[in-house]
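Ticket 4471: requesting a sanity check on a complex prediction with MTE. Repro inputs:
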Amino acid sequence: MSLRSALNIPASQITDETVYRERRRLLGALTLSPALALSGCAEAEPPPPPAGRPLSPEQARAGFRTDEPLTRFEDVTTYNNFYEFGTDKSDPSSAAKTLRTRPWTVAVGGACAKPGRFGLEELIKGLAPQERVYRLRCVEGWSMVIPWLGVPLADVLKRFEPTSKAKYVAFTTLADRKQMPGIAYPSIDWPYREGLRIDEAMHPLTLLATGLYGKPLPQQNGAPLRLVVPWKYGFKSIKSIVAITFVEHRPMTSWNDLQPSEYGFFSNVNPNVDHPRWSQKTERRIAGTGSKLFAERIPTRLFNGYGEQVAGLYAGMNLRTWF
Ligand code: MTE
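Returned structure tokens:
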């Protein structure tokens, strides 16, 4: 039984109600009016950042774990966003059970010397899974603390020898109508797509997660392979990845494509830049006990508290312009 049905709470009351209604209203409006989706003109690409200070191994490791209380396993695995399986928080945990995650192939291509199609095992062969305890901050205003298992994305990407043209990395989720009931609704231009600048992708905090709480990743959390970028809003952490492509120009990304004025390409967590329709100054931490889902509201931190590790990536960039 899902957490929501166990507590008998409608999803609309769990997520901030305004945010819940607004994000879904947007999806509904776009479904009815594709023209709206096209209304945002493409932003220019930001200038390349000046070379940031290199991160010392100690600084990097300092971001690898937080001592904050973990969000309960049952909340991490029943309060999800995975629109391929529905838009309610409880939909993925019930509908994604049947997603087949083996065999799983990832196509790697674009600007690299060694492209190809790789089985999951081959893709991460020889890389020992590491535990990372990261905060996850959703753009909707809730957050969790999750113990992930995974491998640094940089260690995987280096295997394909990206060329000097690889300025960005694009990621694509599986879009299988037979396995994913949400694909029937053209709310998003499926497949779900995300992207990072190459220096963000190569950053030591960026993880390709294969598990959580010491177990293989549950389907609803993006099995068998998902991205985790802890200083960015959760929608950048794309699930169930089937393609990784090195590209020269900023790739199309799903939420930015849906509404560019509301969901930027960078989407770094930033309490000083509100979403046009709600504040990003605070968040509701999902760290409840007993039947309580949310703990108290807490202040949201710039770069989700990972500024020491990542601020250098954005030196010289106006974070309001490049939100
Ligand atoms: N990836 C895909 N393919 N589809 C999605 O709908 N939702 C994103 C992100 N990755 C999403 C996705 C959003 S909005 C968030 S907040 C996180 O996944 C949620 O991850 P979780 O369900 O594991 O907490």
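Notes from triage: Residues 1-14, 31-42 have pLDDT under 50 and may be disordered. Leaving this open until the requester confirms.
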